Amino acid sequence: MFRAAAGGGVGSAAQHSQSLEAWFTHIPGGLKVIAPGTPADVKGLLKAAIRDNNPIIFLEYKAQYNMKGEVPLDPDFVLPIGKADIKREGKDVSVITYGRMLERVMQAANEVDEAEGVSVEVVDLRTLAPPLIKRRSSIRCEKPVKCYW
Q1: Rounded to the nearest 5 degrees, what angle is found at the Cα of 115, between the Cα atoms of 110 and 121?
Q2: Which residue numbers are catalytic?
Q3: How far apart are the first and last CA of the chain?
Q4: What is the pLDDT of residues 107-140, one digit of tens each?
Q5: Would residue 132 be called left, alpha or beta, if left means φ above 0 and alpha means ψ between -120 and 50 degrees?
Q6: Which end of the chain is less packed: N or C, by CB atoms within 10 Å?
Q7: Which of 96, 81, 60, 64 has its CA nearest to residue 127?
Q8: Residue 107 — φ and ψ, nearest 5°?
Q9: Strand order of the sheet with strand 85-88?
Q10: Helix (H, G, I), strand (E, B) or coil at 137
Q11: Tell me: the pLDDT tens digits for 76-96?
């Protein structure tokens, strides 16, 4: 496993502000890229990544280093790699996000719901998988989040 700081917006200068997840997910051979959006997801996915025998890049967004949130105290708390999580239920529109943008999307979803009455579902990918677009042309999703290519 390789842990890497990612993202900009914290005054790290150009050479330290890249978001390389798109490049990492296009590396052939099954490289897994993890991009958690909450402190609890960091704990659960980091433990899963350490236990996984496959090559993994674990992205830590610099803007999230000071993020506060609940973290399970259970020493055996582990989240499955490759499974998205519905962070907010909604019926009008779905927004799919990951990593640092989760916090901003959740805020926007709440604001739109309060101001316009639009019920926004927020899906956090948590794990970015290599794209399979060459072999599949459409995506169909069901709840709980199961996407079929």
Answers
A1: 35
A2: 16
A3: 28
A4: 999 999 999 999 999 999 998 875 443 333 344 4
A5: alpha
A6: C
A7: 81
A8: -65, -45
A9: 85-88, 120-124, 93-97
A10: coil
A11: 999 999 888 999 999 999 999
